[in-house]
Amino acid sequence: GSSLGLPASGRGALASWRSRVSALVIDWGASMAVAVGAFGGGVFEPNSWRSFMILAVFFVQKALLTAFVGSSFGQLITGIGVTRIDGSPIGLFRSIARAAMVCLVIPAVVIGPDRRGLDDLALGTAVVNRR
Prior knowledge:
It is a single chain. The protein is built from six helices and two strands. It is mostly helical. Helix 2 (53-69) packs antiparallel against helix 4. The longest helix has 23 residues, at 17-39.
């Protein structure tokens, strides 16, 4: 993260893979619970409109929480968050675009320099420690 002007460790340093994967698992699990609560067990049936509700809940919570709090639900729990490299707020547009790219999977798992996925590289963001 030093090439980005971020500290090597501690608050503001690039988040570890362990924290990032843990946050993603927590986000997905919480989205499943909310989707089942709101739409019933039909969210697990293939070839049904309800089968997309887990992904829809995941997208909405990730986009809105990141825009307004700087972290998704899972990221809040694991102590990490998303920030713009220039230090300005991430904003609603970047948050929605980033959540959409994470839902597409490929941009988030194709990793570039400094542990940043294509989504972060395209939007000028990074996942950093909040603690």
